[in-house]
Design goal:
Blueprint: H1 6-38, E1 47-54, H2 57-71, E2 74-81, E3 84-90, H3 97-106, E4 111-116, E5 129-130, E6 134-141, E7 147-153, H4 155-162, E8 168-173, E9 176-181, E10 191-194, H5 201-217, E11 224-233
Helix pairs in contact: 1-5, 2-5
Length: 236
Amino acid sequence: MRSRTPKERNARFIFGSLPMLLAAFLVLSLIGLFVLTRIGGKAEGARVEMRFQSDCSALIAPVIQSRVQEMGLGEPSVEVQGQQVLVVATLPGLEDDETAVPALLASSGVFEIYQAETVESRPEGEALAGQEDILNVWYQLSLEGHPVVELELQPNALLRLQGRSKPVLLYTLDGVVIETWDFEEGPDEDTVELQPELLRTEDEVRMAADWVILLRTGPTPCPATVASVTTVTPAP
């Protein structure tokens, strides 16, 4: 086989990379569109009244307020009424807003990292790191074109993860394992990556967006439940 000139090799590389670059561009566009809709975008859905029941309504209201702002709900108002928190806002305009948005606002949002023997193990013992160790949260895109949530942890938390006695790390959100690390060494980077693994990329993007909202706003000080959701003005 004849050797190719540098110009020919570069052309073949660029041509061969086009499908990957196009896929990455489409995923980035999808992520951008969803994030604009889910976080800080223009709310174009129904205007609803959401009531949340909690034994610490005065303490939980600021967390719900932060999540409302992070999501970019339209013209929001948040008010404490006894053991309830009343939220009136315009939803983003996604198909299942009237169930998904209240559920997200009421989530406990407790993030913890545990060590374990295998990825199939259940979290046990004390957490090696938690929400208080997170310095920053942002989006990334994996080399395969999937959304990734990246966490910057404070140095002492990274040392605890690196000095663990068991080979596996389990990353949990509200008691559910959302990511694992099964290498005996590491993570030796300054960040931790959480990647949803679902059948559809758009579902992965939505899950990643929800994780970002919860990880940025932190856990609720006590449990909350969705008491009611009432449509004030239907979606246009």
